[in-house]
Specification:
Elements: H1 3-6, H2 12-18, H3 58-71, E1 79-83, H4 86-97, E2 103-107, H5 114-123, E3 127-131, E4 147-151, H6 163-172, E5 176-180, E6 198-202, E7 216-220, H7 223-236, H8 242-252, H9 255-273, E8 280-283, H10 293-299, E9 306-310, H11 314-323, E10 328-329, E11 339-342, E12 355-359, H12 365-379
Parallel strand pairs: 2-3, 2-4, 4-5, 5-6, 10-11
Antiparallel strand pairs: 1-7, 6-7, 8-9, 9-12, 11-12
Helix pairs in contact: 3-8, 4-7, 9-12, 11-12
């Protein structure tokens, strides 16, 4: 770990550019290439760090150090593990920490795959309690719970809850706390600094930012809990490929540049959409009049790249998406190319038929806003 990246006094850009780099070695690359190895030379006693490709890989190690430096700069008590996808990371925490008879508290307005997760948890004899993200509603369900799962901002509704308040309440009742930090990214929010035991995210989204890598990670402070997460990864084999890990590490170098551009443009776009009479339910945590703004401003360092809003009908929303020229009709978010979709097409989110989730990319702000407003006008005809 380089001193400049580990130092909590440096800026986010400096930290991102240097995160996870090994100590310089003459004539060696600054970022070593991916290590493609299913096994390693292992004579005698197996005491070294790398034994078999399902357990460890040098390319993972560099990436895990990099993510750890972003999630918890300056701390030595944080362990990070990378996974094949965001859902692999989420599953590793839930299924490594919970047993039959335990209770878990989940958001009922979170990522649309969570209902499938709930079915699997209940099939294993785990009690699942749910409440909305907004208003810290999960507080009322904590008694007797083993784990609290927070998603803030929520996807796709962009509600925000008070992580510190919920974490303190959960810990007082003996529960662990995991925060899905995907939408915020580690440059927008640091759940471990707010008291959470786990920060979990899909690296597929803004962390890597190019729409070409599936990845997930778990960063945690509880050594025993992280040992169980590591064991789960080994048992189910939910590991990333070396090339994906290397691409993710390479992409982190531009994270601060991308995040700042995307966040600034998202606010400009949200302000422009606020002036439209045909747009309702506009949400962006960075708008001063947004319901999430107050608490988001207290615990977030950046507000994210996602804007959500509702158009009058499903047909109107689909015409709007068809009319866009600089925004791809695609799922996921956080990429350098703007994307948007009508979330109701998946059937897993409790949103109106005309609800649109728009992920702001790195295009010129004026061009993107012009394209969105033009598409709104065209779709109204």
């Amino acid at each position: 770990m380089s001193d400049s990246a580990a130092n909590d006094d440096v800026g986010d850009g400096t930290r991102a550019v240097r995160a996870g780099l090994p100590e310089p070695v003459k004539y060696e690359p600054t970022l070593p290439g991916p290590v493609f190895a299913a096994h390693f030379h292992l004579p005698g006693e197996a005491t070294g760090p790398y034994k078999y490709g399902r357990d460890e890989n040098p390319t993972w190690t560099h990436l895990e150090h990099a993510i750890g430096e972003l999630e918890a700069p300056g701390r030595d008590d944080v362990e990070t593990l990378v996974f094949a996808s965001g859902m692999a990371a989420i599953s590793s925490v839930l299924f490594s920490q919970l047993r039959a008879g335990d209770a878990v508290v989940l958001p009922d307005d979170g990522y649309q795959v969570l209902p499938l997760v709930r079915e699997q948890l209940e099939a294993y004899g785990i009690e699942v309690r749910t409440a909305p993200t907004g208003g810290d509603a999960q507080l009322d369900l904590l008694d007797g719970a083993k784990l609290l799962w927070i998603e803030t901002p929520s996807n796709p509704g962009l509600d925000v809850c008070d992580v510190r308040r919920l974490t303190d309440a959960a810990h007082a009742r003996g529960a662990l706390v995991a925060v899905d930090n995907t939408l915020a990214s580690p440059l927008g929010q640091r759940p471990l600094e707010l008291g959470a035991d786990f920060s979990v995210a899909s690296g597929t989204k803004q962390l890597t930012g190019h729409g070409d890598v599936l990845l997930g990670y778990v960063a945690g402070t509880d050594a025993a809990a992280m040992t169980a997460v590591r064991r789960w990864r080994k048992v189910v084999g939910a590991i990333p490929g070396p090339m994906e890990a290397w691409l993710a590490h390479r992409s982190i170098a531009t994270l601060q540049l991308r995040v700042d551009r995307q966040n600034a443009t998202a606010l400009i776009l949200a302000q422009a959409l606020r002036e439209r009479t045909d747009v309702t339910g506009l949400r962006y945590p960075g708008l001063p009049d947004d319901p999430s703004y107050k608490i988001a401003s207290q615990q977030m360092r950046r507000y994210g790249c996602v804007v959500s809003f509702t158009l009058p009908t499903r047909a109107r929303a689909e015409r709007f998406l068809d009319a866009l020229r600089l925004v791809d009709d695609a799922t996921s978010f956080g990429g350098v190319r703007s994307t948007a979709e009508r979330r109701g097409r998946w059937g897993g989110d409790a949103v109106p038929e005309g609800f649109v989730r728009l992920s702001v990319g790195a295009e010129d702000p004026d061009d993107l806003v012009t394209d969105v407003l033009r598409a709104l006008d065209e779709s109204a005809r």
